[in-house]
Amino acid sequence: KLSFPLPRATTNLITCGDRFVCPLFMLQMMKFAWDNYKRYAWGKNELRPLTRNGHIGNMFGGLRGASIIDSLDTLYVMGLMDEYNEAKEWVQTSLDLNSNGEASLFEVNIRYVGGLLSAYYLTGEELFKNKVVELGEKLLPAFNTPTGIPRGVINLGSGTSWSWGWASAGSSILAEFGTLHLEFVHLTQLSNNPIYTEKVMNIRKLLNKIEKPHGLYPNFLSPVSGNWVQHHVSIGGLGDSFYEYLIKSYLMSDKTDEDAKTTYYNALEAIEANLVQKSPGGLTYMAEWRGGILDHKMGHLACFSGGMIGIGADDGAPEKRQHYLDLAAEITHTCHESYTRSATKLGPEAFRFDSGAEATATRLSDRYYILRPEVIESYMYMWRLTHDPKYREWGWEAVEALEQHCRVDSGFSGIRDVYTTTVSHDNMQQSFFLSETLKYLYLLFSDDDLLPLEDWVFNTEAHPLPIIRTNCLQNEATQDKTL
Ligand code: DMJ
Q1: Cβ–Cβ under 8 Å, residues 109 and 139
Q2: For ligand 1, atom 11, which residue shows the shortest CA distance?
Q3: φ, ψ (nearest 5 deg) of residue 184
Q4: Range of the structural domain that residue 213 is part of
Q5: Is there a catalytic annotation at residue 374?
Q6: Is the backbone of residue 257 left (phi > 0), alpha (psi -120 to 50) or beta?
Q7: Total number of domains constituting the chain
Q8: Domain for residue 284, yes or no?
Q9: Residues 409-432: what's their mean pLDDT?
């Protein structure tokens, strides 16, 4: 069993006891994850660390190398330059965008477009810019619907698009069509083609116009009629990053996009009025809403909202600033509780607040942990905003748990049940573990001037995108500003 002392801050180095410099430890975790991906799954989308082979899956159409694209910026920011150069060379020689498969518009956007954009902005390498503009063009046919709301699935070769079979009545998903804005605005910046911004502004226009039940945004919308298809509202899966991109659109516009700001705060007020709950034990949580009936469940995915509400706090009405910071801290605390109440000290996929449960999973099917970042993401933002040492302590608890339960001989793996220490691994090292979980941990233990929040916003896959300054030339790489 691994046992590391808690981190403590010295003047500018964060050490974990006398043995480790914490960021260095994250770097070693990243190198271990990367080396094993390289050895057993190079060019595939993800590593299967138990069977020591690659996984392709069906989210990215024929695109390959998701773990490479998702890792470029993490490797670069950590200074793992040999590994970054291997990744760059693969993009140069092997990233084939002429694929014919059926891809998720959302996943390709957040991982591939986001990963290539941030690689370009960090390094200034034209290669990434050329690739991302080429890829951006292939996504445009998904918007050819009667309303301009894109469908969820697109064939990158033929441009044909359709809705997910599981989405009710051919609908599009809020968190999917609502999580394009940051990347598409940057595609316009890099290509000098306004079409990308027009496409996402059209989505916003429709959402502004449509009537919202109690001010809330349901998760399913018809791309044909432009009406909501059913009234399920969630700050977790299916809804989550739509809200995230509202406040981040405002921040990325150098606080000029007032419309995004207003929409965000109106949505947050509706969420507070209808979804935010306090458990009998005093834990604040976000319930889900089904046509007016509350489901007292919070997904791991919803735990990003602590960080989101935190970064938005400063720009709310002055009398509400402290209130939003408190709400952000309370949600982050609840998500930490979902970790501490498990045997592995990792949190379940969903936890409940009914039938006597308080931040624990009650269903077998909700007990898994797939290396997701959201709880650690909120620790990172809350650390940057408050410098309360508890966030670094909580981050270190997560590192210990990952090392103890998710590290296997050939990489990191998700686990099937966080409530038993006799773990069963799911044999998957998700690409977001390299792009998000390890990056957020690294930033949590680094100084605030590494990718400062005044200059960068992170897309929902943790790829940093520069804030667009109104008075600057925008299509210059910004590498020398921060690294
Ligand atoms: C990531 O791909 C992104 O963070 C997305 O917004 C939600 N899910 C995963 C990680 O859990």
Answers
A1: yes
A2: 372
A3: -70, -35
A4: 23-336+373-397+432-481
A5: yes
A6: beta
A7: 1
A8: yes
A9: 98
